[in-house]
Design a protein that fits this description.
The protein has a three-stranded antiparallel beta sheet, with helices on one face. It has a two-stranded antiparallel sheet with strand order 4-5. The chain is mostly beta strands. A hairpin with a 4-residue loop joins strand 2 and strand 3. The chain is built from one helix and five strands.
Length: 76
Amino acid sequence: MCGIAGFISSLLSKSDLEIATGKLRHRGPDVDGFFFEDGRFNIGLGHRRLSIIDLSEAANQPMQSHCGRYVMIFNR
């Protein structure tokens, strides 16, 4: 069971994202990952991972496209 956090906000920062994602540690204690882009509206994606099915680092999130334009987090 993994945990996902995210926002689009002009008021929230990367440290807010880290705090929110940290509160989900019980959902995924194995790995955490972050994407943060600041601009007119800050965009933050955070993920806590519970490694059960895929133990490789290739399954860590957020995942980014090869060109770097697209970023996503998900849970099946």
